[in-house]
Amino acid sequence: MDDAGLDRVVRAEDVAHMGITEVIRHAPHIYGEFRRLVASIKKRRPDVAILIDFPDVNFRLARELKKLNIPVVYFVSPQLWAWKRKRLRWVQQRVSRMMVIFPFEESFYRTRGVDAKFVGHPLAELPLPNTSREQFAADHNLDPTRQWIALLPGSRWKEVVANLPVMAESAAKMGGGYEFLIPVALTLDSGKIEDLLRQWTDQNPWKPGSGIHLVPDAREALHHARASIVASGTATVQAAVIGNPFLVVYRVSPLTFTLAKRLIRYPAEISALEDAHGNLPIAMVNLIAGRRIVPELIQQHFTAANVTAALRPLLADSPQRGQMIADLAEVRHLLQPASGSSSITQVCDAVEALLGLPAIEGGRISPIRV
């Protein structure tokens, strides 16, 4: 985007902070950068604004854009259909076009008076990795004769701390014959992950003949793994579109879990039934399918014993594995954009329609990253 002439007024990486105390500590700087961005918009008066996800900032930015009569195209909807439903009025008031990446979101918004369109999920458009199993093994010092299991504990450090120890315990219980792949997200430090694993190993001696390997790419790991253990989040969509059988895990603080159970309520557009423990599904792949096609082990049910019991049938040539592969193929189909198009192209079409142009001409728009 920089090469194409993008003028970055504010760098996202300079204002992105995780955690309550971190945000409070940097709040003056974050607010100052937000005001600087708003001032730039008032001065330049762009013809249209494209906001992508990041609702805590973008809803406030949309309010400022509305005051200036600048139309807003919002790409990747915040999950208002799960909670914070009151924010829906902000979409109704401030967003000109909502471009959504999950099929049930279009009807959710249209029923509530929002001009929304399902454009497909960008991950579903990507080709499968083309690295061979032999090359992948050589690149990462893996044994190609063993089955590989991918462990995806999350992209935030707090998620890794909460999820990885149980994943490591599950890996130990699986015994020899397997190797385990941990893709390291760009938001994480591989050294810190190695330290966490080392601490766990010191307390729980690792069984001979098994090992964990850190790898750089989640899609390649999912493509080559026999099955996976995936923390709830975008990674479940990655696993689904690649077609890798997996189970979903997650753990948060007891207070957060209690509050989430009280707050999450799905609309009629989502077919979601409680399980035997009174929990609604949280895995996006299950919400897209409208039924539970992958197991969910959440909170106190996320134990090494439960993980190994759910994982073993997916490693064998079992009916469960075959059914899940078929179900994941169905989800991938549901996430595909309309034939002959792409999600990004459809967002561009929406921008051009708001501008009243058959195409965006060079020099017509001065791009400002928000």
What does this structure look like?
This protein folds into 2 domains: 12-120 and 339-355, Rossmann fold (3-Layer(aba) Sandwich), CATH 3.40.50; 133-335, Glycogen Phosphorylase B (Rossmann fold). Helix 7 crosses helix 13 (304-315). It has a 6-stranded parallel beta sheet with strand order 7-6-5-8-9-10, with helices on both faces. A 4-stranded parallel beta sheet has the order 1-2-3-4, with helices on both faces. The radius of gyration is 22 Å and the shape is globular. Mean pLDDT is 89; it is low at 359-366. It is 46% helix and 12% strand. The chain has helices spanning 12-15, 20-44, 55-67, 88-94, 103-111, 133-140, 157-174, 190-203, 218-224, 234-242, 254-263, 284-289, 304-315, 319-335, 343-355, and strands at 49-52, 72-75, 97-100, 116-118, 147-152, 178-183, 211-215, 227-231, 246-250, 296-298. It is an alpha/beta fold and 370 residues long.
Widest β-sheet, arrangement of strands:
7-6-5-8-9-10
What radius of gyration results from the CA coordinates? Answer: 22 Å
Instruction: Please provide the count of β strands.
Output: 10
- CATH homology superfamily of the largest domain: Glycogen Phosphorylase B
Content-based structural category:
alpha/beta
Mean pLDDT: 89
**What is the string of helix and strand elements?**
HHEHEHEHEHEHEHEHEHEHHEHHH
Q: What is the number of domains?
A: 2
Major beta-sheet overview: 6 strands, parallel
CATH topology of the largest domain: the name is Rossmann fold
CATH class of the largest domain: Alpha Beta
Number of helices: 15
How much of the polypeptide forms β-strand, as a percent range? 5-15%
Globular, elongated, flat, extended or rod-shaped: what is the shape? globular
This entry's quaternary arrangement is single chain
| Low-pLDDT windows of residues | 359-366
N/C terminus separation: 13 Å
